[in-house]
Amino acid sequence: MMVIFTPILSQDEYKVEAKRITTFIEENSGKIESENFWGLRQLAYPIQKKTTALYYVLEFTAETDLNEKILVQMNRTDAVMRQMITALDKHAVAYNTKKRGGGNSQPKEIHQPEKVMEEKLPTETPNEASKETPNENQEA
Q1: Which residues contact 5 (CB under 8 A, 6 or more apart)?
Q2: Mean pLDDT on 25-45
Q3: What is the rounded CA–CA span in Å between residue 85 and residue 63?
Q4: Which residues contact 30 (CB under 8 A, 6 or more apart)?
Q5: Which end is more exposed in the chain, N or C (fewer Cβ atoms within 10 Å of the end residue's Cβ)?
Q6: Residue 88: which pLDDT band, with cuts at 50, 70 and 90?
Q7: For residue 89, what pLDDT is reported?
Q8: In 3-state terms, what secondary structure has residue 37?
Q9: How many CB atoms lie within 10 A of CB 25?
Q10: Do the beta carbons of residue 80 and residue 5 sit within 8 Å?
Q11: Could you tell me which residues come within 8 angstroms of residue 103 by beta carbon, excluding any fewer than 6 positions away?
């Protein structure tokens, strides 16, 4: 879930609003996997006549009916400008776990293409090359 808070919040208010969301999820039998405070970022387009906002990314697991309850709670506060809840597939969950350092620490085997044998070309020294080619300025 990504939440975009209004930029007029102080740093403490920003943390309190994020804590309110995480507390609500935990009270409704959800589990917080990770949270990331991105801080103040430039918006791609103005929202409510604001060009910057405070971003907060939260990964959680819960029953699907909790999503609607979270949206209702976030729509009740003026601090939230936008929110988006997405369901992650198993590959995204594995990637996020690995990115956080909780994944398998053994590197995967990387397939190396077979090396193509190079033909060796005869090499000439600069002196031999100049002896074989006639000088254009000399007359025959």
Answers
A1: 14, 17, 18, 53, 54, 55, 56, 79, 80, 81
A2: 92
A3: 13
A4: 60, 61, 62, 63, 66
A5: C
A6: confident
A7: 86
A8: strand
A9: 21
A10: yes
A11: 94, 97
Contact 53, 34 (CB under 8 A): no
Return the sign of the alpha-carbon dihedral for residues 104, 101, 66, 45.
negative
Q: What's the CA gap between 53 and 82, in Å, rounded? A: 10
The Cα 46–Cα 81 span in angstroms is 11
Question: Do 31 and 60 contact (CB within 8 A), yes or no?
Answer: yes
Percent of the chain beyond pLDDT 70? 72
**Cα separation of 53 and 106, whole Å?**
39
Q: Which whole number is the average pLDDT over 87-110?
A: 70
**Total residue count of the chain as it appears in this document:** 140
The tokens describing 137, both together, are: 């300025």
- The 8-class DSSP code of residue 63 comes to -
* Amino acid at residue number 13: E
Segment 61-65 shows an average pLDDT of 89
